[in-house]
Amino acid sequence: MHEAGLAMAIAEALRDERRAGDRVRLVVSGGSSATEDFDAVLRLHLALSAPELDPTEVEIVHLPSERSCLGCGASFTATVADATCPSCGAPSFVVPSPERIDLQLVHPGGGGP
Question: Span 2-106: which CATH code?
């Protein structure tokens, strides 16, 4: 699974850049729409790759993906795998796009990267 490779790369980056108290935000765009499965597997691999990382300090944010309606062909964005078309209610599919994960460190006190 590619989540294992991602987790190892994330763990290495965290060891190099993370300061004590930093929270970790992973912003995911593109790729698959099965966000719950992706999150669970990535968290498991992160726990194995970076046991020093408290899982409660990791936030995974999925940006909406471009979708196309199977019924009317409308384009729209959604974050859930089973999104239906807002125009006609028909099922939709994810328009393929490259997966990207941005690692952000959120410093104590609410400051961003």
Answer: 3.30.2320
pLDDT values of the chain reduced to their tens digit, one per residue, 113 residues:
577 888 888 888 888 888 877 889 999 998 766 778 888 888 888 888 888 888 778 899 999 999 999 999 999 999 888 899 999 999 999 888 888 999 999 887 655 55
What is the b/e burial string over 48-70, where b = at least 16 CB atoms within 10 angstroms of the residue's CB? ebbeebeeeebebebeebebebe
Note the pTM of the prediction, 2 decimals: 0.77
